Amino acid sequence: MDIEDLATRIEAGERRALARAITLVESGRADHRADATALLERLKDRPAQALRIGLSGTPGVGKSTFIEAFGLMLTGQGLRVAVLAVDPSSARSGGSILGDKTRMEHLSRDPNAFIRPSPAQSQLGGVARRTREAIDLCEAAGFHVVLVETVGVGQSETMVAEMADLFLLLLAPGGGDELQGVKRGIMEIADILLVNKADGDLRATATRTCADYAGALRLLRKRAQDPQGFPKAMTVSAVEHAGLDKAWSEMQALADWRREAGHFAARRADQARFWFEAEVREGLLARLKREPVRGAMATLGRQVAEGAITPTAAAEELLIQYLQLGLADRAPDDPQSPSPKA
Amino acid sequence: MDIEDLATRIEAGERRALARAITLVESGRADHRADATALLERLKDRPAQALRIGLSGTPGVGKSTFIEAFGLMLTGQGLRVAVLAVDPSSARSGGSILGDKTRMEHLSRDPNAFIRPSPAQSQLGGVARRTREAIDLCEAAGFHVVLVETVGVGQSETMVAEMADLFLLLLAPGGGDELQGVKRGIMEIADILLVNKADGDLRATATRTCADYAGALRLLRKRAQDPQGFPKAMTVSAVEHAGLDKAWSEMQALADWRREAGHFAARRADQARFWFEAEVREGLLARLKREPVRGAMATLGRQVAEGAITPTAAAEELLIQYLQLGLADRAPDDPQSPSPKA
């Protein structure tokens, strides 16, 4: 693969090149991984910085309608918008390509928008790396806004928040029960809560719900990287396109404040370090499942089960073998790995 | 340290040697770890097999009173009983030595009983290895029953169940609310539910609660390693020593059935393999926090934070350094490690 050519075309903003590069980072094949790493290394010294926005909300809250309306508003202002989806639950359905294209019908046809569905991956760890790398690729392709959408399930919000500059939580209008349904942890990572469906019969309920959330937010501990008034709650109506410009102004104001205070760059640095450490841990454990370490593990596991060796002594033995086999294992792969500067 | 001498004294059932060996396995010092591993290797080919009983129950349910009464009943039958406590929450109080001795006043003075309080450890992983190894030591010292007690908090039950031949759950008499408070996961690992305090004013409530739990147990999926009627719910009264003999008969019946069906040995083999794999994972990750890998991680982490290298490329670089440094790191330690046959 010609990494340099692909990189140049991504930097020129070619959507097909971007799509191909994302397919590359989504691949689990060793040679693809090596190409992906080389590509990302090549692209890392880009000047432009996109605003990375994480967005979460439970099913039915109107995420697709919101993204469609919000995305079209931004492209209408001349901004280029990328939408990435993270849905750990989509592993079963094998991705949601059709779903993502049809549920954001107008945005998906907009030349200034790029929509990428959730990859069909079962492990959140794998999803994390692929999403993080896809964000980097979108940023390298010159997108001004990268919106990373996730469903309100399990640990995916925390993961997306660790990749985003801002985190939005989309909520439905409703009473006290719904309020309690939002986990405290999610409240604590959100910068802006958007109560959607503030239209028609639900307008009054949405306003009241928004006030309830605003009250709840005031009970949370103040974060150092927040200016006065954040995190905040607002109402929007995705179907009536109401409040979207106001929400965007608030996002920009928050991002600007953080940039000036140095929190923006510091957060990205912390995130990079966080993912580096996560990758290291995952890489160490992934090697246990690969030959030849896997074979050594199975052999020692049998001896442990038979009582021929204690678990602790066997683990120490395996660690030595891991180190030796790991080094030997690496050698044949090296010639295939392209140099980052190739 | 004279491992052979210590091993011989443990095999002779010397309680002071056993206590000293448990202190050894609880130590985090590298030379102590090496001695502990050698000691356990030396002792692994023992003929006797204790019945390992896990016991959990929320605070206030009467665990101490139950263990005191149950333990004294067993020692009264000529059996030797060891009691180990696992309490992840005791990390703050720095162990509970006085507590364990005073709350089982008579049992702690019984020459056929050995009570070991929870070590003051903060990490459940470390507690797991130490507890597992302490069980092995008690078994090598010829104890007939090793009772491992844990509080009904977090993951400690699952951990103890992975070390035990049988798992008991001690419950308080009470209504439907209390019934729901018992997590489904805990119900599923319990072999026998004991509703305590079936005495005085609470006798009728305990009987009703027991029937409720019995009903709930029937809804659980049948496990292959269980004979007809298990898991089961029973009432006991620790203060009146009522139902303890019946509970002990049931434990023995279940253990006998499993021994004859081959499940007993198979479960121990599975557990040994489980802990071997857990130790491997923990050992790999623990090395990240030790020099010289820790230094390499800090250096690369800084470069990642500065944007000089991507998290993925840095993680790959660290993995190579981990393997190389890990092998180099090991060398100076080896001369200190006593041979298991020394």
TrEMBL record, chains A, B:
This is LAO/AO transport system kinase. Belongs to the SIMIBI class G3E GTPase family. ArgK/MeaB subfamily. Keywords: Kinase, Transferase. The keyword Zinc-finger does not apply. GO terms for cellular component: cytoplasm. GO terms for molecular function: GTP binding; GTPase activity; kinase activity. InterPro entries: GTPase_ArgK, P-loop_NTPase. It comes from Citreimonas salinaria. Gene3D superfamilies: 1.10.287.130, 1.20.5.170, P-loop containing nucleotide triphosphate hydrolases. Coiled coil: none annotated. The lineage of its organism: Bacteria, Pseudomonadati, Pseudomonadota, Alphaproteobacteria, Rhodobacterales.
